[in-house]
Structure formats: C-alpha cells, structure tokens
Automatic annotation (TrEMBL):
Every 2,4-diaminopentanoate dehydrogenase C-terminal domain range: 134-341
InterPro entries reported for this sequence: DAP_DH_C, NAD(P)-bd_dom_sf
Name the UniProt record assigns to this protein: 2,4-diaminopentanoate dehydrogenase C-terminal domain-containing protein
Taxonomy, superkingdom: Bacteria
Leader sequence residues: none
SUPFAM superfamilies associated with the record: NAD(P)-binding Rossmann-fold domains (SSF51735)
Amino acid sequence: MVVRVAQWATGAVGQEAIRGVLGAPGLDLVAVKVHDPAKAGVEVTPGVTTVATAEELLAARPDCVVYTPRTPSVGEVADLLRAGIDVVTTAFCFHPARMAAADRDLLLAAALDGGATLHGSGLNPGSFGAAVPLALSGLVRQVRRVTLTERADWSVYESTQITFDAMRFGAPPAEVTEAASDFLAFNADLFRQQVWLLGDSLGADLDEVVTRHDVATAAADVPVFDRAIAAGTVNAQRWRWTGRAGGADLVEIDCQWTVGPTDADWPPTQHGWTVTIEGDPSVSAHLMTLASLSEPRSMEDHVHAASTATAMQVVNAIPAVHAAPPGFATTADLPAVRSLQGFRA
C-alpha cells in the first residue's frame, strides 16, 4: 500500500523530509505547504508544486502530513487529525501523556474523531533521547539509571535566528530563563516529556521531573556568522532534566550547549550524544551525526546532517504510524524505525 504524504513547512528539516519521502518506496509526495505565499507555485517534483494554504494541502488528499514548522500550532495539527490525516512531527508532542492537559485532550479528541494517529519524534528530543535508550535497555535485566549527555557548539550553526532569538544566546543572564522566554519554556517542556517517556516506559514510577539551568558568559566578543555575542552576555547553557523517584535520580538528560569557548566549570563531555544505562549489565553508546565518517566533507555538510537525521526519524516511521490505531503513538509504542530507502539509489 502506498501512503500519500504531504510536507508542512520547508525549513532545513522540512527540505530533508521531502528528500526522504521522494526516496522511500511506499511513500508518495502529493503536496508541500510553504509558510511564505511568495514561495507558492514552485515545482518540487513532477506533478507537485508548493501551496500556501492548508485548504490546498487538504485538497491533495494526503494520508499523512510531515509537520515540521519552527513553532507548532495545536490547532493546525488538530484540524489535520480531525480530517482523518495522520501526522508525524518533529516539533512537539513527544509524550502526550505528560503534555499540557488542554492540548492533549484537544489533540486526542481530534485524532479519535478523524480516525488518525499523531506521532512526535526527531533527534533529541526523539531518537537519541528515547528510541536509542529504549533499544539499549533490551540488553539489560534491571535498570538502575539512564542518562543522556549532549554536547554541541552552536557557533557552527548558520541559523542565527534560532541561536540568538530563540535560544537567547547573546542575551544578559537574567533574560536566559524559562520565565523570561516562551521558547526556552516550550523547549524545556519537550525534554521533560522525554524524561517522563523513559521513566514511564521502563517502570521507574517517577515522582517528578526537575529542571536545572546554568549559564556562563563570554569573556570576549564571539562572532557568529552575521551576528556576534558580546562579552558579558550568555554564550553557554547547561540544562539538566532529571526524573526522580523516592529521592533518587533515575533518568537524566544533560545538555551542554555553547557558542565558542567557555570557561564554565562543567564536566568535560564528548561532542555528540552519549547514552548510558547503569544496570545489570551496564551499557553505553556514543552517537554522532556527520555527513560522512569516511569522506572529507565541509563543516556546513556535517552540521546539516543533524537536520537530515531529525527528518528521517519521522519519515521512516510513517508506515508504522499509518498502521497504528487512532490516537497517539509514541516512540515507545512503535516498532523499531529503520531506513525505508535503505541501499536503494
């Protein structure tokens, strides 16, 4: 059975999702929605041109929408689900059981009304923070603790609007908090959902998920493409989301994000992602996304590889999501996701 797929949003992740759909047997790209009306009418592939409205996307009769806007809308996704269209998204809804109740109830009612399924995943939050730890747990009899550490230098990312305006790098410390930034609060909640997902899936019976957020400031100006971080403003953030039960830390995600050099007194961490399960036995895996591990590639290509991985985690999940019962399908609910295109050219 061929699944008719529409793409919603054409940023870095959206563009990679389009490539993924076009290369995957069993998926048929039928529509691409853009945010800017000026970009409508552009041919993506023979027979498919970009559209600017949800109505035009619906007219293409997709079975599933890959929803990857920078800022998600619960209302938009609910409308798609109510119309009987499955949604896979990298933007939110990683563990609906632990998201805001009003949003969860609206989305669930829409999915059940339309007979559709909603799945949220990506890289981290997503595969490295949920699918990989759960897969590794299959090697373990009893789990005592699960941790994921992430280390990334944002100075190599060209999307300075995200680095500065969304993540608040380059702002005074007092402005780099959940209370001062809607985006940081939204982003932190996605990671809290992921901690809850691991705890709920592995029987941790967590009492709470707490957030610890530390920042460090630049000792000198740091140029970043078309912007610059001024000395004395934030150029390093460390976020820790910890799931606790009975006073013990059982699940933790520890992210160290910097822009340029920092003298913050934080534990040294290898670039990329490290998943560790303390248990019987204990297992650990270090993960990276690169354009190639064997061929010379540019830094731009290596950075872009993360967008490809983020997109493909949900594109490759489309057949499983389409086959799932109506409602929510988390990473823990679906079978292991594998490449649909595989070795095919």
